[in-house]
Amino acid sequence: MNKILVILDSQPSNEAVVARLIELADESTAVELLTIVHEPNLDGYLGNSEIYEPLRKRLIDEEGAKAAGIAQRLKDRGIDVVSKAIWDWPRGDAIRRESLAFGADCVILSFGLDPDRHIGSRDWRFLADCPSPILVVNGPAESAYARILAAVDPIHAHAKPADLDVAIVQAAQTVSRQSGANLEMAHCFVPLARYAASAEGDDRVPLNDAERALESSRQQALNRLAGEVGLDAGETRLIEGDPVDSLKRLGDDKQADLIVMGALSRGKLADLIIGSTAERLLRHAVCDVLLVKPPNDTT
């Protein structure tokens, strides 16, 4: 990661995102700390710029000073960092513009450390729109990453582009090298037998030959992908169950400190929702999530 854009918001989220930045940055990384300042009551909708502009400037200066203090701490660590505070809104649109202007390889931010955090519709639009990988910090970052899980779909369900899986694993490998964490590649799936359960009870139908053949094909596809990205077959796993529930459980059980997954736009008419799996996971995950867009995605 040559350029990282860090979005500052409020404590304790700032401490968490800065801790992750320190983990991922090295002497070759250029960092920008960005604070987005906005107060609707000071937008100047009555047209009295003589009153509103000084008040906006004071807020910008106050937040800029806080960001400069954090930047100095990072400079003392030898990190090449600049900081800025801007008056802009909506937040997601402002981040996307700054990411493009800075040429960020990664954006680090947090929507809050509450497990039931609120992520608004404009946030979803930004998450789908932003061309850079986005590291969403959900935990307090009390320790370095130890286990990274790259969630892939080698059978390309739901018309997902094949090159997205490679991009997901490559992003995970980058973080793994920087943090020294172990990396595992996983594919979650719901077995056919789950849908064939008896109406009278919850007992699953035993796996038949078709089920076994399908599971074998999934493993083969996963192994082929592992070979393409330089991983061993032993660094892969099939996880039976609903993808969101399975991935969340891995985070809850500390089996994954970071989950790397794809972010797919569903089109303008769908308001650029990034996909139900990523959306549901981001709302409740206790571990961090790194969202990766398909290569050359211009959405």
What's the structural domain tally?
2
Structural class: alpha/beta
Give the total of beta strands: 10
Average per-residue pLDDT, rounded, comes to: 86
CATH architectural category of the largest domain: 3-Layer(aba) Sandwich
CATH class of the largest domain: Alpha Beta
Largest sheet: 10 strands, mixed
What is the overall silhouette?
Answer: elongated
Q: Which percent bin holds the helix content?
A: 40-55%
Distance between the termini: 22 Å
What is the spatial order of strands in the main beta sheet? 3-2-1-4-5-10-9-6-7-8
The CATH topology name of the largest domain reads Rossmann fold
List the SSEs and their pairings:
Blueprint (H helix, E strand, L loop, with lengths): L2 E6 L4 H12 L5 E8 L11 H27 L4 E8 L3 H12 L3 E4 L11 H9 L4 E3 L10 E5 L10 H18 L2 E8 L2 H4 L13 H21 L6 E5 L2 H10 L5 E5 L13 H9 L3 E5 L7
Parallel strand pairs: 1-2, 1-4, 2-3, 4-5, 6-7, 6-9, 7-8, 9-10
Antiparallel strand pairs: 5-10
Helix pairs in contact: 3-4, 8-9
What does this structure look like?
- The protein is an alpha/beta fold and 299 residues long.
- It is 41% helix and 19% strand.
- The protein has two domains: 1-142, Rossmann fold, CATH 3.40.50; 143-299, HUPs (Rossmann fold, 3-Layer(aba) Sandwich), CATH 3.40.50.
- It has helices spanning 13-24, 49-75, 91-102, 121-129, 162-179, 192-195, 209-229, 243-252, 276-284; strands at 3-8, 30-37, 80-87, 106-109, 134-136, 147-151, 182-189, 236-240, 258-262, 288-292.
- The two termini are 22 Å apart.
